[in-house]
Amino acid sequence: MTVKEYLEKNKIEEFVLTDRVRIPIPNDIIKYLDLSSMNVKNTETKKGMLYIYTDYVADSC
Predict the structure, then answer these.
(1) Does any domain span residue 8?
(2) Does 59 score more than 90 pLDDT?
(3) Is residue 7 part of a domain?
(4) Backbone angles phi, psi at 51, to 5 degrees
(5) Distance (Å, rounded) from C-alpha 60 to C-alpha 50?
(6) Is 21 within a domain?
(7) Which is higher by pLDDT, 12 or 2?
(8) Residue 61 above 70 pLDDT?
(9) Could you give the CA distance from residue 34 to residue 53 in angstroms, rounded to a whole number?
(10) Which of 8, 19, 26, 29 could form a disulfide with 56 if both were Cys (CB 3.0 to 4.6 A apart)?
(11) Which top-rank group of organisms is this from (predicted)?
(12) CB–CB of 37/54 below 8 Å?
């Protein structure tokens, strides 16, 4: 399931997206990403916040 499908299905407002190595992706970068091309690997709730672990790999410079 893609991140876009997951968010539409579950109607989630607050969440943290992480990359392949579970590093949170900053919100200013998320707005430029194509969420329909990122797959959800796992989800977890920590301290009341939903963490969505994805298969995203950041481009290197």
Answers:
(1) yes
(2) no
(3) yes
(4) -105, 125
(5) 27
(6) yes
(7) 2
(8) no
(9) 15
(10) 19
(11) Bacteria
(12) no
- Determine if residue 47 is left, alpha or beta; phi over 0 gives left, psi from -120 to 50 gives alpha, anything else beta: left
Range list of β-strands (E), 2-61: 15-18, 40-46, 49-54
> Tokens 């963490």 — which residue?
51
**Confidence (pLDDT) at 12:** 87
Residue 3 CB partners (closer than 8 Å, separation 6+): 17, 35, 36, 38, 39, 40, 52, 54
pTM metric for this prediction: 0.88
Q: Nearest Cα to 22, choosing from 57, 59, 61?
A: 57
* Domain-located, residue 26: yes
- Cα–Cα distance, 49 to 36 (Å, whole number): 22
Sign, Cα dihedral of 52, 57, 59, 61? positive
Instruction: Measure the CA–CA gap between 33 and 30, rounded to whole angstroms.
Output: 5
Q: What pLDDT is stored for residue 9 in this prediction?
A: 96
